[in-house]
Design brief:
By secondary structure, this protein is an alpha+beta fold. It folds into 3 domains: about 60 residues, OB fold (Dihydrolipoamide Acetyltransferase, E2P); about 70 residues, DNA polymerase, domain 1, CATH 1.10.150.20; about 45 residues, Ubiquitin-associated (UBA) domain (Helicase, Ruva Protein, domain 3), CATH 1.10.8.10. It has 9 helices and 5 strands. The longest helix has 14 residues. The radius of gyration is 16 Å and the shape is globular. The termini are far apart.
Length: about 200
């Protein structure tokens, strides 16, 4: 099991990044909560990881904090919740906010995350309720490729599509994020904040 990687960021195209570790490039997928804290391309980064082995691929997921990784590992144990949904959850809601939703049985807030229907949200509340008492759990996606070197708006659009938003929704959220010069991460952050308020 690969538990962490440390190296220089070679590229960032949410939700994917490439980290160069002494000449070996590790392709990782990370939630937007991790992307928001990443340094610029070329800078050094240290990330916690979780390796998911499937019949057709080995996928390495990256996290900025131990809390995010623990929640991810707990989520993928829930029936019907795979890494794609777990990544969408971590991208659309903080670890603390997720814990509050489970404790308060707030199904509506969970269904605002793309890819989370009512049945899945209900299952999450029921199955995660007991796990939140576990000291190992903190209290409280098919990938759309994005061309390197495209505009922040295009990269943000691709990231929102990869997170499960429909094209029209992604366009509307990015327009609502406001005009002006913003980085890809800032555009995604604003779009997700607007989506959470709806």
């Amino acid at each position: 099991m690969i538990g962490s990687v440390r190296g220089r960021i070679a590229s960032k195209t949410p939700p994917q990044l490439l980290v160069d570790v002494v000449g070996v490039g590790y392709e990782l997928e990370a939630p937007m909560s991790t992307f928001f804290h990443l340094p610029a391309v070329g800078e050094e980064v240290s990330l916690l990881t979780h390796l998911v082995v499937r019949e057709d691929a080995h996928v390495l997921y990256a996290f900025a904090t131990e809390g995010e990784r623990r929640l991810f590992r707990s989520l993928i144990k829930v029936s019907g919740v795979g890494p794609k949904i777990a990544l969408a959850l971590l991208s659309g809601i903080s670890v603390e906010a997720f814990s509050r939703c489970v404790v308060n049985e707030d199904i509506t807030a969970l269904t605002k995350v793309p890819g989370i229907g009512r049945k899945t949200a209900e299952r999450l509340v029921i199955e995660m309720r007991d796990r939140l008492g576990d000291p190992g759990v903190p209290a409280g996606v098919g990938v759309a490729p994005v061309a390197v070197g495209t505009s922040p708006e295009s990269e943000a659009y691709g990231a929102l599509i990869a997170l499960g938003y429909r094209p029209a929704e992604a366009t509307r959220l990015l327009k609502a994020a406001g005009p002006g010069t913003h980085s890809t991460e800032e555009l995604i952050r604003r779009a997700l904040q607007d989506a959470g308020r709806e």
